[in-house]
Specification:
This protein has helices spanning 9-21, 26-42, 47-52, 58-67, 74-80, 85-90, 152-160, 178-183, 197-209, 262-270, 295-303, 320-330, 339-353, 388-401, 406-410, 452-460, 467-478, 482-498; strands at 72-73, 94-97, 100-103, 106-110, 125-129, 166-172, 187-194, 215-218, 230-235, 275-290, 308-318, 355-367, 374-378, 415-416, 421-425, 435-439, 447-450, 502-503. The chain is α/β, with parallel strands linked by helices and 505 residues long. It has 3 domains: 1-104, no CATH class; 136-385, 3-Layer(aba) Sandwich (Rossmann fold); 404-503, Outer Surface Protein A, domain 3 (Alpha-Beta Complex). A hairpin with a 7-residue loop joins strand 16 and strand 17 (447-450). Helix 2 packs parallel to helix 4 (58-67). The longest helix has 17 residues, at 26-42. The radius of gyration is 26 Å and the shape is elongated. It starts with 8 loop residues before the first helix and ends with a strand. The relative contact order is 0.08.
Length: 505
């Protein structure tokens, strides 16, 4: 991999030209493969793809070479990469043997619109990483400094990020540089850091290949940016919760070397010191569920006193056995002679630590100059992607509510969000529904069970009437005291605004 840093700019430019000429872009590749082969490749199966790419075109050759990891004839490689095979082989990107060329790294097209891989009409990038392990059921074998490519985690983080213009942004633990590429679209300066020198080499090459400028720095966590602050920080840190391991067993892209969920605690407690006023941080994370302590108490304790609003969402929780199986298979240990012993040792360590489950989710932090608002919740259901616009809107709603007295809130004129629908559930023929639910069609796609009064409140919010006027009218209709209804419902109004059922007037 040392040759990557030595790839001359002119050679990088010729590679970019060859990829462009061949039409090596996400939409074109998806069209060539077709839905069946494209879906199979997402499951690490290449046979349908090989059947779909037999026309010998430069595009088909590049798909076979890099995405399908299939050797191609030297003549076909020369036609797809004119004059490039030898320089790329010298740089360690290709191997040439017996009239065939095979890939030593992965180079794939990646869509760029709002963090969505393969968005229609997106300009896109090319992203280099190490080869995808385990294709077609082959043994998973990854080196300790393996550079992970485009993954579900990287696309999730990209889709969660607020894409508003900023001056300085940091991609902490950049890997192959996917997040950094996204950041170049809306940040004046992008700093990308990693402890893995192979990852940094690929990030530099990816920046050159895509014609963007990155400030790439080597070092662990926040060490490379000591004393600096940013408007935006994004990070998918090596958050896997595991027992102590030898350096040979540690995979740098996922294992921090710190015990338990300490790396996540460190990130969440340290990143606020690197945020400018109003600055944001988006973090993917794992955290442990310990007996006698809720995960909200654990993570909320880390966030207290940071000076940041925090919105933390747990998307799923895995029991210890499920968690261990996932990451041992990810490391290629499944099926090896030491699999059972390592499985047992990991479970024993969890038991010693009192770990009952491991949660996965994300945290959004924003530095504020008022009393911070912390909200930690579980939401395992389907959401809309990209979610970045909702993250930004939620911040604005929280700002609108912060410091607003009950009297002031009663005078506001919010409007129900246009995508909110009411669902009524009950026995056939019943006079009244047993359950009323308000459901969002966009953003978090929340569902909130309400009673008649709350449903009536949301239904009457049209931006013209004040909250106080609506509550007084409801009190008259329901035969309740206006002051009592106001006192009982104002907390619900705040929740409805925070969660986006009602929009500030």
């Amino acid at each position: 991999m040392a040759g990557v840093d030595q790839l001359p700019p002119a050679t990088v430019g010729r590679l970019r030209e060859a990829l462009t000429t061949a039409g090596y872009a996400y939409d074109a590749v998806a069209a060539l493969l077709g839905p069946t082969a494209h879906s199979a490749l997402s499951r690490n199966e290449t046979t349908p793809g090989l059947r779909a790419t037999g026309d010998g075109s430069p595009l088909a050759t590049l798909v076979r070479l890099w995405l399908l990891q299939s050797p191609v004839a030297r003549g076909a490689a020369d036609r797809a990469l004119p004059g490039m095979v030898e320089p790329l082989a010298a740089a360690g990107l290709l191997a040439v043997s017996a009239g065939e060329v095979r890939a030593l790294v992965d180079v794939r097209p990646y869509g760029s619109d709002e963090g969505s891989e393969g968005s229609e009409g997106s300009a896109g990038w090319w992203v280099m990483s190490d080869l995808t392990p385990g294709l077609d059921g082959s043994p998973v074998a990854v080196r300790p400094d393996h550079v992970l490519g485009i993954s579900s985690a990287s696309t999730t983080l990209a889709q969660l990020t607020v894409r508003e213009p900023v001056e300085r942004a940091l991609d902490l633990g950049t890997g192959c540089g996917v997040q950094a590429l996204h950041l170049t679209r809306h940040a004046g300066q992008v700093v990308a850091t990693d402890v893995n020198e192979r990852a940094l080499a690929m990030t530099r090459l990816n920046a050159d290949l895509n014609g963007v400028t990155l400030d790439v720095r080597s070092g662990s966590l926040f060490d490379p940016v000591a004393g600096e602050d940013f408007d935006l920080v994004v990070t998918n840190p090596p958050f896997v919760v595991s027992p102590p391991m030898t350096s040979g067993d540690r995979l740098v892209y996922r294992d921090s070397g710190l015990p338990g969920d300490e790396v996540v605690r460190h990130v969440l407690t340290t990143v606020p010191r690197h945020l400018r006023p109003g600055g944001r941080a988006h973090v993917l994370a794992n955290w442990v569920h310990r007996s006698g302590e809720s995960w909200q108490e654990r993570v909320g304790g880390w966030l207290a006193g940071t000076g940041c609003d925090a919105w933390v969402v747990q998307r799923e929780a895995a029991d210890p056995a499920e968690y261990v199986e996932l990451w041992l298979k990810d490391a290629g240990v499944h099926g090896r002679p030491d699999y059972v012993a390592r499985y047992d040792a990991w479970l024993a360590w969890f038991e010693q630590q009192g770990v009952e489950a491991v949660g996965f989710g994300w945290a959004h932090l924003r530095r504020v100059d008022r009393d911070p608002v912390l909200h930690l919740e579980e939401w395992p259901w389907d959401i809309e992607q990209p979610l970045g616009p909702e993250v930004a809107d939620r911040s604005r709603r929280v700002d609108w509510l912060a410091g607003r007295s009950d009297e002031s809130l009663l005078a506001t004129r919010p409007a129900a969000r246009s995508d909110v629908r009411q669902e009524a559930v009950g026995e056939p023929g019943a006079a009244d529904p047993a359950t009323l639910v308000l459901r969002q069609q966009r953003g978090m796609r929340r569902a909130r069970q309400v009673d008649t009064a709350e449903a009536g409140l949301v239904g009457a919010c049209d931006g013209e009437l004040s909250v106080g006027q609506i509550l007084d009218a409801l009190a008259s209709l329901l035969g309740e005291e206006p002051d009592t209804l106001r006192a009982e419902r104002l907390a619900a109004v705040r929740e409805l605004v925070t969660d986006g059922f009602l929009l500030p007037g």
